[in-house]
Write a structure and sequence with these properties.
single chain, binds coenzyme A, Aminopeptidase, 5-stranded mixed sheet, globular, 4 helices
Length: 150
């Protein structure tokens, strides 16, 4: 049975899940810092095995981002991702200060936009919303085959 939890996963399991979905490699120290600095991390386990997760990062007042939205390929298409994303969105909504608004953003992997649109995200650029942009800041990272920038 799958178990949905709000918790930081084991660092090794996080690194491994990123590998399984084709995200770029993290060092242990890098993975630890990224997990430590998230606002909240939603995880899904099958027994001891981490099979899905997503993180919320940001300032909790003006802007938050969904990051590391991933479901193990063996478990995709079972609504796990949707449930994680809905939960992160609900948590972010609960942070919005009275009388204010906050933006919830993300950078999607090519081809996954539809997944986010099902949860109410607007694909950019659109109307008054400009494009999302990315700059890779590299300090000696060695690219390898199949690497992407997610
Ligand atoms: C993208 C990802 C998180 C989706 O998780 P999932 O658990 O497989 O998706 P779900 O089963 O919750 O799908 C929910 C809905 O989104 C749709 N959907 C899922 N992946 C989609 C995609 N790539 N494009 C368009 N729609 C998609 C599903 O068909 C489903 O629609 P329905 O409610 O009409 O049936 C998962 O495929 C994944 O981890 N991919 C590899 C890593 C990745 O690219 N992550 C995104 C980083 S930006």
């Amino acid at each position: 049975m799958l178990e949905y939890k709000v918790c930081k996963p084991e660092i090794e399991q996080y690194i491994e899940l990123r590998k399984r979905v084709g995200f770029f490699d993290l060092t242990y120290e890098q993975a630890k810092r990224s997990l430590d600095n998230a606002i909240i991390t939603e995880t899904v386990y099958d027994g001891e095995r981490l099979v899905g997760m997503g993180r919320l990062i940001g300032d909790g007042a003006v802007i938050c981002y969904v990051q590391d939205m991933m479901v193990d390929p063996d478990y995709q298409g079972r609504n796990i991702g949707h449930r994680i994303l809905s939960s992160l969105t609900a948590y972010a909504a609960g942070l919005v200060l009275p009388g204010t608004k906050m933006l919830l953003g993300l950078m999607s992997v090519s081809g996954t936009e539809g997944f986010y649109e099902k949860c109410g995200f607007i694909k950019r650029p659109s109307g008054r919303w400009g494009a999302g942009l990315t700059k890779v800041l590299d300090n000696g990272y060695v690219e390898h085959k199949g690497d992407n920038n997610d």
